[in-house]
């Protein structure tokens, strides 16, 4: 961990010329990557505590901004803003559930600044959907490019790995349902966002919010193994899986469980 | 406006306003072109001030060393308790709050010192260089046990207690067929104004000082500030500028004492503008209330007995707490309903939980939430319709108020109820199966105008012709968004038959007429009353001079657009009058006492009463327990509407504020520390949370009524919370007694019922 300072003026902002240089600088100076700063800045202001050194990311670096069709699906530049994401024709074509979800993410001002990678690193609403889609992170590591599943990315510490892009599988034929529980209708941090994806033969479930972003492999396995279970059993399984991965509030677990049931019906899963 | 239901009911529609002048003023406001105190950045020599706030909620102050701070670059003045020239105390009701703490801090955010520097950053850096040594003291964080804790001030933590009794309540309970006992809790709501507390103190060069600030009572503040600064009141001027919201949160002094002391010390103007974090931490809040209520009725639903024990947490200092307690208890007597016997008591206690004070509703809406919930519970227990139960208990217009005082309604309460029963929201289909459960509920509320209880309450205004021939109208009220200026313009334009564009309204200047505080929904009543006295005086003075200048008989001259008319022809413009007349005589002043009940030696409660019925429709998410308020239909009985957009803005705006208090807003405390410090955590409703609203005005005031205009600044918040919780109950079968509504509690209730089913 790099040391911190108590005045904004003391923060040193490094402006690397390339992604590789950014990784080197972050490693050498212990700097924090900064994209739209929409998540970092309010936290610093609140705590009156800033990192000594920031590494500013540049959306002009190749592959860091924009959305492209690729063989495997869609590749989304890490520094693509949430606003760009919500308006992009490829997203409307490949993943119409995403623009709907983005309407519930923050407000217009934050969506214009906030980036996809920033949202994922902050455990924002996109995490649940992207986890359930088996998204992969394309990283610029110290030892060259690397690809990692998003789920693995969350398990590993978000240290010096720099996300260049996120690859989503082609999900045009999948059934996808997402739901968010916030404190108010809009402009609320998520209490629980649940995503449920029916990708042909398999169901995938993920959640993010107060208990952190998680794929739910145990519940998924139970749903996919073909044995029918009673609703009560399935609810218990989900509740214990949630509890074991950090979701401590029992009423929030109950809400998630009911949201999952609802989303399963939406994607046409009958147990 | 379109007429609905009956001849005396109109549905308000802001778009129907046809006076033409509304756009300029409203658009200036909407587009942020009004000059707020925050904008006063181009005053020559302006310094930036900042206040050092206590890090502890309760501690002995052992040492405050400003040596290093004084030597910091750009610093012009550093002040502490030692530098307060006069009285180091303030407070509207009880002067118990130090400008700067001397030997003890009583809440996290208490002021210890202040700095004026060239820039805000330099001021902040200097604050950081002030060394403070604390010795933490045990916290008084639970209002319910505060009285048993060591006192935060000289005597006990019980700041005030009050009790209203009527009849033999124990005997009345013994005769009850049904008794409901319940505890109610309401939150520590934050004003969350758009513009935080702030302003500028400017030395006038002759030893006096001028404040340009966001405040609610310039004249009253002069008195307190003069004492603090040890100046004659004549040397202190307060200009209450248009400010981005107040809602009671700027009623008490905020930054003025620190800014004034710094300005005197530095000999230069000093601006202090609280940041949002600081405002959240140090600013005033709504009193959280815990109330135990016990209410009983006979088998027919007639209310017989009612008992209330309430505890209000006023935090570290009194501010307007004692008056809030009084208004809470007044509302807790259930002013709209006839109850055979009651015993209503409340205690106001000091704690280390910030400071609570004035807030739109002023304690009344907290009480109404509980009262209306009790009535619904009684109806449920009796298996009767809640509206029917209300109907048989409502007072008539001829009856005295709940404290046996004379009251003046504008319509019979039962008419209001009847109107509410006809709301189209009752006929919407109830969803009981799908994801969203819907329901409609209703609550009634009453609210009085004026400071009440015989407190000194008067106000005046002035009208004059300017040298340029414009009509200048002055009142001491502050404009904090309610746009009282527009209401004054309308009334004057109507009274003089001139265009709104000919009138300049000047507000909030302590050198001008004293209109009293901009609070207690009193401005409209006073404006109307004062203009009624003032305009004839001025018209007579103007006509007299016009007669001399034109040679026409005074009796044949009349006011009209742009000047004075004779037989339908303008014979003298106001400009010509200003140029040729004696301006010093073209001034009229008038003042009046706020209307109180006639023939009362010691007035009780409030004489001018308003009513509101709010019908709410909600949709509750069966999956998660979250609540959407889809519609609010208000029926108001508050006299005549003089400015429809203003009236609508007040009712709808207050209702959304009440919705926030009902669903999301609370400043939770942990060990006397506020747990939210910005608007990304403290969640006020957004546009997406604001429901469709409709305001129907029910008015039966006769043409010759002496008080046809009432103030509606607080009325809209009165019945919102119980209407919403009643609708939630209709949707889910779960009644909530603690605000804000916890979706988890609702979800558990819904889940339990599903399992039972
Ligand atoms: C008022 C408000 C309301 C909000 N409401 C919501 C909401 O409803 N739902 C929701 O999901 N989110 C919400 N957010 C969070 C918002 O989505 C995030 O702030 C935004 O997406 C973060 O993006 P950014 O580019 O600004 O990230 P930054 O603040 O710049 O960074 C965030 C984190 O990501 C890391 N990071 C950024 N880019 C990279 C990269 N390429 N590689 C590696 N690490 C990187 C940074 O080091 C940092 O740790 C809200 C935020 C605010 C301020």
Q: Could you characterize the architecture of this molecule?
A:
The complex is a heterodimer of chains A (271) and B (757). Chain A contains twelve helices and 14 strands. Chain A has 271 residues and is α+β, with helices and mostly antiparallel strands. Chain A has three domains: 4-56, 2-Layer Sandwich (Uridine Diphospho-n-acetylenolpyruvylglucosamine Reductase, domain 2); 67-168, Uridine Diphospho-n-acetylenolpyruvylglucosamine Reductase, domain 3 (2-Layer Sandwich); 175-266, CO dehydrogenase flavoprotein, C-terminal domain (Enolase-like, domain 1). In chain A, strand 11 and strand 12 (190-199) form a beta hairpin. In chain A, helix 10 packs antiparallel against helix 11 (231-244) and helix 11 (231-244) crosses helix 12. The longest helix of chain A is centred in the last third of the chain and has 17 residues, at 250-266. In chain A, 45% of the residues are buried. Chain B has 757 residues and is α+β, with helices and mostly antiparallel strands. Among the domains of chain B are: 1-11 and 420-443 and 605-757, Aldehyde oxidase/xanthine dehydrogenase, molybdopterin binding domain (Aldehyde Oxidoreductase, domain 4); 44-138 and 191-282, Aldehyde Oxidoreductase, domain 3; 458-593, Aldehyde Oxidoreductase, domain 4. Chain B has 17 helices and 32 strands. In chain B, the strands form eight sheets. Chain B has a seven-stranded mixed sheet with strand order 5-7-3-14-11-12-13, sandwiched between helices. In chain B, helix 12 packs parallel to helix 13 (523-550) and helix 15 crosses helix 16. The structure holds flavin-adenine dinucleotide. Flavin-adenine dinucleotide binds next to strand 3, helix 2, helix 6, helix 7 and strand 10 of chain A.
């Amino acid at each position: 961990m790099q040391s911190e300072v108590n005045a904004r003026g003391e923060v040193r902002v490094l402006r690397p010329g390339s992604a590789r240089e950014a990784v080197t600088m972050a490693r050498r100076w212990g700097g924090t990557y900064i994209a739209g700063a929409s998540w970092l800045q309010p936290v610093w202001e609140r705590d009156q505590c800033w990192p000594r050194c920031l590494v500013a990311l540049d959306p002009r670096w190749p592959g860091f901004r924009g959305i492209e069709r690729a063989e495997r699906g869609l590749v989304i530049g890490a520094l693509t803003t949430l606003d760009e994401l919500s308006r992009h024709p490829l997203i409307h074509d490949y993943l119409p559930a995403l623009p709907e979800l983005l309407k519930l993410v923050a407000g217009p001002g934050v969506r214009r600044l906030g980036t996809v990678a920033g949202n994922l690193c902050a455990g924002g609403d996109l995490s649940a959907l992207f986890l359930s889609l088996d998204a992969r992170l394309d990283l610029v590591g110290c030892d060259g490019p690397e690809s990692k599943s998003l789920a693995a990315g969350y398990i590993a510490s978000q240290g010096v790995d720099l996300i260049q892009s996120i690859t989503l599988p082609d999900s045009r034929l999948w059934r996808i349902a997402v739901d968010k529980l916030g404190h108010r209708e809009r402009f609320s941090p998520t209490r629980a966002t649940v995503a449920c994806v029916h990708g042909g033969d398999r169901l995938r479930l993920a959640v993010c919010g107060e208990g952190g972003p998680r794929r739910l492999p145990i519940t998924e396995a139970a749903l996919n193994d073909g044995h029918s279970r009673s609703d009560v059993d399935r609810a218990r399984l989900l509740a214990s899986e949630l509890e074991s991965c950090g979701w401590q509030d029992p009423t929030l677990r109950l809400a998630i469980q009911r949201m999952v049931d609802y989303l399963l019906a939406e994607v046409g899963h009958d147990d | 406006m379109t007429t609905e239901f009956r001849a005396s009911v109109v549905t308000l529609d802001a778009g129907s306003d046809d006076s033409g002048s509304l756009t300029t003023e409203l658009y200036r406001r909407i587009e942020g072109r009004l000059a707020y105190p925050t904008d006063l950045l181009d005053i020559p020599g302006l310094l930036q001030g900042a206040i050092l706030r206590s890090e502890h909620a309760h501690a002995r102050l052992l040492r405050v060393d400003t040596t290093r701070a004084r030597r910091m670059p750009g610093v012009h003045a550093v002040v502490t308790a030692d530098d307060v020239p006069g009285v180091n105390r303030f407070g509207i009701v009880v002067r118990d709050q130090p400008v700067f703490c001397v030997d003890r801090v009583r809440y996290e955010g208490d002021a210890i010192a202040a700095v004026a520097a060239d820039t805000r950053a330099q001021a902040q850096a200097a604050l950081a260089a002030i060394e403070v040594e604390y010795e933490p003291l045990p916290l008084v964080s639970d209002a319910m046990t505060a009285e048993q804790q060591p006192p935060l001030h000289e005597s006990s933590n019980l700041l005030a207690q009050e009790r209203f009794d009527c009849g033999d309540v124990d005997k009345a309970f013994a005769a009850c067929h049904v008794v409901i006992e319940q505890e109610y809790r309401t939150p520590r709501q934050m004003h969350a104004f758009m513009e935080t507390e702030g302003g500028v103190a400017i030395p006038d060069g002759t030893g006096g000082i001028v404040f340009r600030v966001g405040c609610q009572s310039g004249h009253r503040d002069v008195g307190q500030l003069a004492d603090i600064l040890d100046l004659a009141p004549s040397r202190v001027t307060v200009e209450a500028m248009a400010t981005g919201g107040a809602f009671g949160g700027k009623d008490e002094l905020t930054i003025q004492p620190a800014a004034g002391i710094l300005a005197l010390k530095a000999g230069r103007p000093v601006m202090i503008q609280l940041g949002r974090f600081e405002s959240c931490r140090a600013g005033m809040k709504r009193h959280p209330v815990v109330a135990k209520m016990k209410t009983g009725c006979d088998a027919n639903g007639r209310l017989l007995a009612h008992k209330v024990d309430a505890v209000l947490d006023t935090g570290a200092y009194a501010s307007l707490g004692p008056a809030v307690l009084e208004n809470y208890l007044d509302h807790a007597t259930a002013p709209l309903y006839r109850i055979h016997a009651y015993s209503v008591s409340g205690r106001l206690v000091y704690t280390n939980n910030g400071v609570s004070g004035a807030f739109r509703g002023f304690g009344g809406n907290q009480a109404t939430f509980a009262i209306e919930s009790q009535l619904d519970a009684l109806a449920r227990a009796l298996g009767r319709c809640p509206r029917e139960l209300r109907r048989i208990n409502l007072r008539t217009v001829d009856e005295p108020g709940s404290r046996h005082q004379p009251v003046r309604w504008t319509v019979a309460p039962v008419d209001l109820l009847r109107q509410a029963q006809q709301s189209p929201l009752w006929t919407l289909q109830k969803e009981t199966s799908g994801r969203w459960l819907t329901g409609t509920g209703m609550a009634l509320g009453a609210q009085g105008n004026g400071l009440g209880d015989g407190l000194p309450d008067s106000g005046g205004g002035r009208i004059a012709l300017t040298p340029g021939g414009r009509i200048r109208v002055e009142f001491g009220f502050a404009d904090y968004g309610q746009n009282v200026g527009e209401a004054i313009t309308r009334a004057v334009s109507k009274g003089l038959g001139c265009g709104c564009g000919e009138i300049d309204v000047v507000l909030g200047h302590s050198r001008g007429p004293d209109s009293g505080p901009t609070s207690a929904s009193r401005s409209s009543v006073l404006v109307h009353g004062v203009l009624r006295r003032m305009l004839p005086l001025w018209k007579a003075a103007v006509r007299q001079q016009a007669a001399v200048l034109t040679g026409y008989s005074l009796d044949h001259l009349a006011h009209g657009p742009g000047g004075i008319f004779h037989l339908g022809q303008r014979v003298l413009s106001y400009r010509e009058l200003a140029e040729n007349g004696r301006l010093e005589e073209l001034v009229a002043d008038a003042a009046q006492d706020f209307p109180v009940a006639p023939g009362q030696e010691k007035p009780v409660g409030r004489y001018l009463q308003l009513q509101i019925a709010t019908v709410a429709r909600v949709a509750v998410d069966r999956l998660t327990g979250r609540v959407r308020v889809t519609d609010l239909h208000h029926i108001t009985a508050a006299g005549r509407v003089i400015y429809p957009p203003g009236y609508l803005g007040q009712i709808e705006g207050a209702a959304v504020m009440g919705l926030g208090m009902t669903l999301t807003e609370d400043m939770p405390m942990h060990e006397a520390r506020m747990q939210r410090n910005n608007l990304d955590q403290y969640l006020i409703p957004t546009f997406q949370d604001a429901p469709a609203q409709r305001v129907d005005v029910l008015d039966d005031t006769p043409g010759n009524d002496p008080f046809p205009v009432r103030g509606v600044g607080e009325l809209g918040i009165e019945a919102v919370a119980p209407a919403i919780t009643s609708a939630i109950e209709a949707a889910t079968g779960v009644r909530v007694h603690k605000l804000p509504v916890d979706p988890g509690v609702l979800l558990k209730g819904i889940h339990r019922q599903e399992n039972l089913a």
